[in-house]
Amino acid sequence: MQLFLMRHGEASFDALSDRERVLTDLGRYQTRQMANWLTGRVAAFDLVLVSPYLRAQQSWQEAASQFPQPRKLMMLDELVPNADPAKAASLIQAYAMHCKADKVLVVSHMPLLGYLVSDIVRGIEPPLFATSAISMIDVHGERASLGWLEAPHTIG
After folding, report:
1. What is the pLDDT of residues 74-109, one digit of tens each?
2. What angle do CA 36, 78, 42 make, to 5 degrees?
3. With b meaning 16 or more CB within 10 Å and e meaning fewer, what string describes 109-119?
4. DSSP structural state of residue 51
5. Cis, peptide link before residue 111, omega less than 30° from 0
6. 42 Rama class: left (phi>0) / alpha (psi -120 to 50) / beta
7. N- to C-terminal Cα distance for the chain?
8. Nearest-angstrom CA–CA distance, 127 and 106
9. For the whole prediction, is pTM greater than 0.85?
10. Rounded to whole angstroms, what are the CA distances from 143 to 49, 93, 137, 138, 150?
């Protein structure tokens, strides 16, 4: 399985709660830019899992315009910023197995994404994800390796 982890785009702090923060114009642009770049590496996703927070939902909407409809799209409360990374990793892998998904996209937040990487790929420190950044992890049973981590400022 190829697991793609994407951080939401830049979001405004002008909101009643963290859950309701919306993408800025730059956040929308950079998310589309990264999704367009990603189309050169993956044609479609079998499974897309998205945080319920508004900025993550909007990021998926921006990215979705670049890809065919995934076989399965789900919103998971376990993908919020301070969720338990071990529980989130287990759920992601369980849903991927259940859906027989080879290409999985997760749209979520820091610090969860960094901890997910170090939970799935044993022996590495949690990386930092810039806004709109995407990583790819090759998962083969119990073995996993980080293929890459790219952000809007590194693909240009």
Report:
1. 999 999 999 999 999 999 999 999 999 999 999 999
2. 20
3. bbebbbbbbbb
4. -
5. yes
6. beta
7. 27
8. 16
9. yes
10. 21, 13, 10, 8, 22
